[in-house]
Amino acid sequence: MSDEGSTAETVHEVGEFYQLLTTQLESAFGRRHPHWVRGEIAKVYEKSHMYVDLVDAGSVSSDTKRPVLNAHCWATQWAPLKRKLASEGVTLTPGVIVNFYGYVDVYAPQGKIGFTITQIDVQGLLGDVARRRQELIARLVSEGLIDANKRVAMSPVPLRVGLVASPGTEGYSDFTGQLAHSGYGFAITLVKTAVQGEAAPPQIVSAIEALDAHGVDIICLVRGGGSKGDLAAFDDERVARAIAGCATPVFTGIGHTGDESVADLVAHTRAITPTKLGEEIAALVDGWHRRHVRVPAQRVLDATNGLLDEATEYVAERRRTMIFAVRDRLRSEQRHLGATRSQLLVHSRHLLSTTGQALASTRQLLGAYDPSKRLAQGWSIVTKSDGGVVRSLSDVALGDTVRVLVSDGSFDSTVNEKNGASS
Amino acid sequence: MSDIGNWNEAANELDAIVASFDEGEVSVDDLFVKLERATQIIETLESRLDATKMRVDELAPRLAKVTEAE
Asked: Which end of chain B is more exposed for a tag (fewer CB within 10 A), N or C?
């Protein structure tokens, strides 16, 4: 202590000094004179109250001389602020640049000057979140990771479904309900995870890796609707990289219509809701079933019926044809026989007629030579005793008895004299 | 000659018989023999067809069940 100090200036007790200091600070930086302070979160700790070490943005942690502001937010103010931040998807984590509004206070027992936070610039933080999100997407694009999982080959029938979700949630029920009601035998392998909060990203990453190693057709990340904060886990870089590096197609059904997380962008396939995701997966299987089972079965059925109809018609037609062909052939033969028979009758009759006429002529001719007719005309026939007809004088001798036939009988006569033409 | 071969063989033989009738090549002496053979083929084909239909009728509902959603 110098002589000047001991004589001219007041010496303060420690408590008194802190009181003086506090008064001076409060007059410029106290509760009634709050300030905005911008910095990067170096450390953050929460236990009812929230404690955060704020440093200059971009300062190096190894710099032991960099200024640090020990800020805190008392529980009564932190609780509503935390809810607001969470609803916007903002989490105070190291590296985040934030604007705190508050005032300086002095905590004499530890000799510390602190900063009590009363407000947080949420809009600024949102802008920062959006910026970091865009930066993450740009990194994923530049590293070729944004489409990496989209290039993974898909099973044509994704029946083995790995599910990353929180059982009991609406999103879980909506998704599994769609698969259950599809009528197809989906085998779901569930890995339970938190789907919001700080614990969610590492759990989701572990679940993806476990299911990828387990061997499923697809991995589904499912989370129902919620605030941006509730869905923040799906904008996490670790989750995005886990999806990009996964050898199994990752499908997402996260939030409501309009929500699009980084996980959605990196995923193989994204649906707008868990319900829609279940529908789409069921539709994939149904499409395969239709193309490879139902349509071919219908074709087989149609072809079978067509073939049977054709064969039935063929046999029936051949039966009819044979009946008519044989009938025609027999009729033809019958007609031929009938014609032949008719011709034979005509010929026979003609022959009979001709023969009859010939006989009549003969008969008529013979009639002209009938001896009885000659006898009736006065002619007689002389026969010898032996019946021989006397045709010449030489046939008889004088004294012979001859018989003379006349028209009504005969009489015997004796040859008394022979008178020849020459005599 | 009870064996008529497979469906196509039998159909070819039947077609040939029918063609011989169409072309008037069948004598009365051959007519009965050919008719008897054709009848045998037709009855055997019908019998096979009936048996096939019965089996198809058994299977068709099962197949139709698969296609119900179409």
From this structure: N
Assess contact for A389 and A410: CB atoms under 8 A: no
Distance from C-alpha of A399 to C-alpha of A253, rounded to nearest angstrom: 168
Instruction: Say whether residue B1 is in contact with chain A using an 8 A CB cutoff.
Output: no
Q: A115 and A99 in contact (C-beta within 8 Å)?
A: no
- Return the amino acid letter for A86: A
Report ipTM (2 d.p.). 0.89
Domain ranges in chain A with CATH number 3.40.50.2300: 154-334
Residue A419 CA to residue B7 CA, distance in Å, equals: 111
CATH 2.40.50.140 location in chain A: 3-133
Which of A326, A328, A334 to mutate to probe the B interface, most B CBs <10 Å? A326
pLDDT, one tens digit for every residue, chain A (423 residues): 444 445 578 888 998 888 888 888 888 998 889 999 988 888 899 989 999 999 887 777 777 788 999 999 999 999 999 888 877 777 788 778 889 999 998 888 888 889 999 999 877 777 777 788 888 999 999 999 999 999 999 999 999 999 999 999 999 999 999 999 999 999 999 999 999 888 999 999 999 999 999 999 999 999 998 777 778 899 999 999 999 999 999 999 998 877 789 999 999 999 999 999 999 999 999 999 999 999 999 999 999 999 999 999 999 999 999 999 999 888 988 999 999 999 999 999 999 999 999 999 998 888 878 888 888 889 999 999 898 999 999 999 999 999 999 989 999 999 999 888 654
Spatial separation of the C-alpha atoms in residues A246 and A268, rounded to whole Å: 10
Task: Select the residue of B42, B46, B64 nearest A322 (Cβ to Cβ).
Answer: B42
Interface with B, mutate which of A321, A330, A336 (most B CBs under 10 A): A321
A38 vs A110: CA distance, rounded Å? 25
Class (C level, CATH) for A3-133? mainly beta
Does B47 map to a domain?
Answer: yes
Specify if B29 maps to a domain.
yes
Of A294, A301, A321, the CB nearest to B60: A301
Domain range holding B38? 7-67
The tally of domains found in chain B comes to 1
Beta strand spans in A306-394 (E): 381-383
CB A336 within 8 A of CB A371: no
B contacts of A290 (beta carbons < 8 Å): 69-70
- Asked if the structure places residue B2 within a domain, the reply is no
Give the CATH number of domain A154-334: 3.40.50.2300
A312 interface with B at CB cutoff 8 Å: yes
Residue B41 lies in a domain: yes
Q: How many residues does chain B have?
A: 70
Give the distance, in angstroms, between the CA of residue A122 and the centroid of all CA atoms in the same chain.
50
